[in-house]
Amino acid sequence: MAKFELIVALCLLSSVAFVAAATTTTAPTFFIVQGRIYCDTCRAGFETNVTEYISGAKVKVDCTHFSTGKVEHSNSGLTDSTGTYTINVVDDHEDETCEVVLVESPLDKCKEIKVGRDRGQVVLTLDAGMSTNVRHANSLGFLRDEPLPICDKLLREFYGLAEEELNVL
Ligand SMILES: *[C@@H]1O[C@H](CO)[C@@H](O)[C@H](O)[C@H]1NC(C)=O
After folding, report:
1. d(C-alpha 159, C-alpha 169), whole Å
2. Is domain 30-168 classified as CATH 2.60.40.10?
């Protein structure tokens, strides 16, 4: 009797182990890409203290195959009230370059896209040595049609400060 129970217990244990092994190896891979979209109110190419974050901006994640140059995966999303988007991307993209790309701004005065500043790379492979599947992308900005009046002063201060820092180094 005890022997029979032991065998049953062992069978149960091994099937649990088998199921666990099967689920870890076949579980679908997915990544959560997060970032923020802003209005570049100074047309500066970076965030300043007068940057505004855009709600309802459309962005996409495109994964392009290294050798074929073909877009193998594309998924888009919208930003929330804090300008933050969250886009899920399924599968591992070891052989692809994945980029977050600006698509469309809901703001009439802030919808210009500057080629080169309209995208940022994200690494969507488990081989990248990161322990989480959440990937934070750099912020991307649409350009305001006219810089805000404060920007002149602000950018002069910014570049002045950068010069002082360079002199110290
Ligand atoms: C932003 O920075 C500039 C320059 O330092 C300053 O004059 C301005 O008051 C700041 N604006 C806000 C909204 O904090």
Report:
1. 15
2. yes
Q: How confident is the model over 59-73, as pLDDT tens digits?
A: 999 999 999 999 999
State the pLDDT at residue 54. Answer: 98
| CA-based max dimension of the chain | 87
DSSP class per residue in 91-142: S--TTEEEEEEEEE-S-TTS-B--TTSSEEEE---GGG--SSSEEEPPPEEE
Reading the block at residue 2, the tokens are 């005890």
Residue minimizing CA distance to atom 12 of ligand 1: 49
The average confidence (pLDDT) of the chain is 86
Nearest one of 31, 140, 25 to 94, comparing CA atoms: 31
- Express each pLDDT in 75-94 by its tens digit: 999 999 999 999 999 998 99
The pTM of the full predicted model, rounded to 2 decimals, is: 0.78
Task: Give the three-class secondary structure for 156.
Answer: helix
Q: Which of 98, 97, 102, 14 is nearest to 58 (CA)?
A: 102
CA of 46 to the centre of ligand 1 (A): 15
Residue identifier of the C-alpha nearest atom 3 of ligand 1: 154
